Amino acid sequence: MNVLKCNSKLDAATIESIDKAAADVMSGNLVVYPTDTVYGIGANPFDQVAVKKLFVAKNRPFDMPLTLAVADKAMVEQIAIMTKPVEKLIDAFLPGPLTIITNKNPNVPDMVTSMSFKVGIRIPDDPVALELIKRTGPIIATSANLHSQPDATTVEEAQQAFGDKVSTYLDKGISGTGRPSTIVWISDNKVEIIRQGDISKKQIEDALYA
């Protein structure tokens, strides 16, 4: 288990830490990393052994789908169907504290989405997270806590939850807002707020229909 310091300036030491964490992800291990909301625990979504390892580490029911984080719009298209409403929300709010649920591409493993045809997508507004994702490609982005327990806003809280089940912890101090993202589901041009966060339903509707 490694705890590696990092910062938003992306200095040489931070880049070295990110490189080590990315190598861990691509080797099938779990990592904890900062985001713009709370700390996340990540794994390679295309490695089903790693995905199962993450479900077990979190005590998360296998019928609860996982969100994926990406670095940009091009990476969204690797995992989801890019519709006009999805593109509008990406342009308006991402990177930022918004998770968009939309139809997935067939290459996303069913284990990640709990057999659903939908997938949740995030582009976190955090330079460390984005640099990590640029190296790994799409990464699982679920909060770094045990299922139903409080979200981790520090690496110490994540360590208490996972210990050596996580190979690398990227420690950036206290996480962004400490509040989870807004989750919105877009289907047939209909919008449903699944979880309210900093971005309101009105802001989302204004972006879609203005």
Count of helix runs: 8
Q: What is the overall silhouette?
A: globular
Largest sheet: 6 strands, mixed
Rg over CA atoms: 16 Å
**Spatial order of strands in the largest sheet:** 7-4-6-5-10-11
Helix content: 25-40%
Beta-strand fraction estimate: 15-25%
Oligomeric state of the chains in view: single chain
Number of strands: 11
Instruction: Give, in order, the helices and strands.
Output: EHEEHEHHEHEHEEHEEEH
Class by SSE composition:
alpha/beta
Mean pLDDT: 95
Spans of at least 5 consecutive residues with low confidence: none
Question: Would you spell out the secondary-structure blueprint of this structure?
Answer:
Blueprint: E1 2-5, H1 12-26, E2 31-33, E3 40-42, H2 48-58, E4 67-69, H3 73-79, H4 84-93, E5 98-103, H5 110-113, E6 118-122, H6 127-136, E7 139-140, E8 142-143, H7 155-162, E9 168-171, E10 182-187, E11 190-195, H8 201-209
Parallel strand pairs: 1-9, 2-9, 4-6, 5-10
Antiparallel strand pairs: 2-3, 3-8, 4-7, 5-6, 10-11
Helix pairs in contact: 1-6
What would the keywords be for this entry?
11 strands, 210 residues, alpha/beta
